[in-house]
Specification:
- The chain has two domains: 2-272, Purple Acid Phosphatase, chain A, domain 2 (4-Layer Sandwich); 279-468, 5'-Nucleotidase, C-terminal domain (5'-nucleotidase,  domain 2), CATH 3.90.780.
- 31% of the residues lie in helices and 29% in strands.
- It has 16 helices and 25 strands.
- It has a seven-stranded mixed sheet with strand order 6-4-3-2-1-14-15, covered by helices on one side. Strands 7-8-10-11-13-12 form a six-stranded mixed sheet.
- The longest helix is centred in the first third of the chain and has 17 residues, at 20-36.
- The chain is globular and about 80 Å long.
- The N and C termini lie far apart (82 Å).
Length: 469
């Protein structure tokens, strides 16, 4: 006798709730079919379901996301870096208190010694005919952030080395729910042949029909739930072994919206707007935002970041602020809409030679006009770089390129071998946007404050009518 076991999954929704009603449609239809056919069926999520770019996630610190997952009746989930490092310790500790599904993340450890009650190292599900399927979650080790929030992410390899033999004794099939990224998934498949399937995420890779590495099947469904994933496992009861495994992803962007979910989202959004509606300041005139020009608000925000971090200088890109701030009462919801990025301030040490190169790179036309998605940035383009603590002397060529003639600090030219503490948005510490910043071996992140929190400080200090009386 052979039995098929079906697993539907999502990864990296990033609170893209415009797509969520289609996810609900797909999963409700799938569940109805599997129940009718009396087939074992589970729904799992691979993390980064939460993203504080959306007001619902911002207002309720991810707990509304969990309620939405409860409604669809998820069975198992792991956490991504957006759950892990964009929430305070307390908010993550209580994020899944009301989850009706299991949460597994074997490499999450609390530095306070007090672990959340909902956290499982792994979970074992049993099919109707008794096949035991173990699911173990892992998340990416951004410990420069996690340690500031009193968490630690252990090496996934060390944890798998410890747990896989134990799980193999308890289960027939092993599935890794991996928010580690494609490269790590491939390496784990090479090192741990006892893992049957790796359902992945984090790097937003899309494997339409899976990828086989050794004997491990890898799958992932891109980002924002434009696709959802299906894994089909075939177990042979007579031979007592897994004889086939398949993985598919389905484009669901054409599916109708589940109206019950639309109503639920509208209700959450109304609650979020009400919750975020507290007034921060009242403006007599609107504050103008320009991505490619120097503005007063960007200068003041950059000054605030420099003061807040106690750095020698600071630099922020004008594309961080997405829209004008209207006159009248300005609420936290307005600030969130204008600066939605989960980006923290960060200070890196650079010598004068490196800092001069960073300034030059940041003012290049190709850099200023770069359209960017990722590294926490939720805007359109990087925009003009604004400086605090630095006097940057430039000329503009006929082709629009900016030439940096000189850079001074405190009236003195930058000294090539002197180390300066430079505050930047943490987005520049990843990838190759500003290589000198990304390569810095020392990075001091400031958590849990996002840049929008410092925008609030800037508005209260410089624009609040009460403070001007």
């Amino acid at each position: 006798m052979q039995e098929k076991i079906y697993i539907n999954y999502t990864n990296d929704l990033h609170s893209n709730f415009e797509q969520w009603p289609r996810v609900a449609t797909y999963f409700k239809q799938a569940r109805a079919k599997h129940m009718q056919d009396e087939e074992t069926h589970w729904i799992v999520d691979i993390g980064d379901h939460v993203d504080r770019v959306h007001p619902i996630s911002e207002a309720f610190m991810g707990k509304a996301n969990v309620e939405l997952m409860n409604t669809i009746a998820y069975d198992v989930a792991t956490i991504g870096n957006n759950e892990g490092i964009t929430l305070s310790h307390e908010d993550l500790y209580h994020l899944y208190d009301r989850a009706s599904f299991d949460v597994t993340c074997a490499n999450l450890e609390s530095l306070t010694g007090d672990m959340p009650h909902w956290l499982n190292m792994y979970t074992v599900r049993t099919s109707d005919s008794g096949v035991r399927v173990a699911m173990i979650g892992m998340t990416a080790p951004f410990n420069d952030y996690y340690h500031l929030l009193q968490w630690h992410i252990a090496s996934p390899y060390e944890k798998l080395q410890a747990y896989v033999p134990k799980i193999k004794a308890e289960a027939d099939i092993i599935i890794l729910l991996s928010h580690l990224g494609l490269n790590e998934d491939q390496e784990i498949a090479r090192r741990f042949p006892d893992i049957d399937v790796i359902i992945g995420g984090h790097t937003h890779h899309l494997l339409r029909t899976g990828e086989l590495v050794n004997n491990t099947l890898l799958t992932a469904a891109g980002k924002h739930c434009a696709f959802v994933g299906d894994v089909i496992l075939t177990w042979d009861h007579k031979r007592k072994k897994l004889i086939n495994k398949e993985a598919y992803t389905t484009d669901i962007t054409h599916l109708p919206l589940d109206q019950q979910t639309v109503v639920q989202l509208n209700d959450w959004e109304e609650k979020a707007i009400h919750k975020l509606n507290q007034t921060i300041v009242q403006l007599d005139e609107p504050i103008e935002i320009k991505w490619f020009q120097h503005t007063e608000i960007m200068q003041l925000l950059t000054d605030t970041v420099c003061d807040w971090t106690k750095a020698d200088c600071a630099m922020l890109n004008a594309g961080l602020l997405l829209d004008d701030i209207p006159a009248g009462k300005v609420s936290y919801g307005t600030v969130h809409r204008i600066c939605p990025h989960p980006i923290n301030p960060c200070v890196v040490p650079l010598n004068g030679r490196q800092l001069m190169e960073v300034v030059r790179q940041s003012l290049a036309k190709s850099f200023v006009e770069l359209k960017l998605k990722g590294f926490g940035f939720r805007g359109e383009v990087i925009g003009q770089m604004i400086f605090s603590g630095l006097n940057v002397v430039t000329e503009t060529h006929e082709n629009g390129e900016v030439y940096v003639k000189d850079v001074h600090m405190d009236g003195k030219p930058l000294q090539p071998d002197i180390i300066y503490q430079v505050a930047v948005p943490d987005m520049f510490t990843f990838g190759r946007l500003l290589p000198e910043v990304a390569r810095s071996e020392e990075k001091h992140y400031f958590l849990p404050e996002f840049l929008r929190d410092l925008l609030v400080v800037t508005l209260e200090k410089n624009f609040d009518k009460k403070n001007s009386l």
